[in-house]
């Protein structure tokens, strides 16, 4: 995909704690010039990115990167599918075969991968 500044990425399961992988992903996405949105269970800031408790609406999302366990994804699945992102990245700990299958049936690319590794190796 390359460093496309027009690419909007939603980090779902975002945290303001610097030791969390979702926090690190937001920082790295910013460094790679991706437009970054973040949703978590508490509001706050990571760099220039505001974490919201609400899913964005009327926002074209290219990639959703998940940092939520399968159980915690359930409430978001209808919103995620309605957004019709081009792909969903299931980070380690977020693997969810049933949801992956649902997304694939709607033409959404899915992968079990680590956003941080993908960014570091130019595969994002």
Report on this structure:
The chain is α/β, with parallel strands linked by helices and 124 residues long. It has a single domain, classed as Rossmann fold (3-Layer(aba) Sandwich), CATH 3.40.50.720. The protein has helices at 21-31, 70-73, 77-83, 97-105, 115-120, and strands spanning 8-12, 35-39, 44-46, 49-52, 63-66, 87-90, 109-112. It has a 7-stranded mixed beta sheet with strand order 3-4-2-1-5-6-7. Helix 1 (21-31) links the parallel strand 1 (8-12) and strand 2 (35-39). It is globular. The model has no long low-confidence stretch (mean pLDDT 94).
Roughly how many Å is the radius of gyration?
13 Å
Instruction: Report how far apart the termini are.
Output: 6 Å
The largest sheet has its strands arranged as 3-4-2-1-5-6-7
Q: Mind describing the biggest β-sheet?
A: 7 strands, mixed
Overall geometry: globular
In short:
With 124 residues, this protein is an alpha/beta fold. It is built from 5 helices and 7 strands; from the N terminus they run E-H-E-E-E-E-H-H-E-H-E-H.
